[in-house]
Amino acid sequence: MPRTEIIKQERMHIRLDAQSKQKLEKAASYSHKKLSEFVLSQSLAAAETIISENEQMTLSQSDWDLFLDALENPPKKSAKLTEALTLHKKSVVR
Fold this sequence. Notes:
By secondary structure, this protein is an all-alpha fold. It has helices at residues 18-30, 35-55, 61-72, 79-91.
């Protein structure tokens, strides 16, 4: 099976103090990685965690049951909801 080569075209520059760089180099050495590989892998792992925390929601069983019930038996539109939808249509441009 042929290996797909990823072409790295983007570059990122960061400035840091000597103590921070030494700490990163030490951690990279313990991980048996080059400094840039270590920084990239750790940054991407942190990015995945942060994205996941902000884009996913986990519900308890009782909250899940309430959510499904609301989907299956939606409440009737109230005057306030109708007013909010009207305001939304006027203010949102697509």
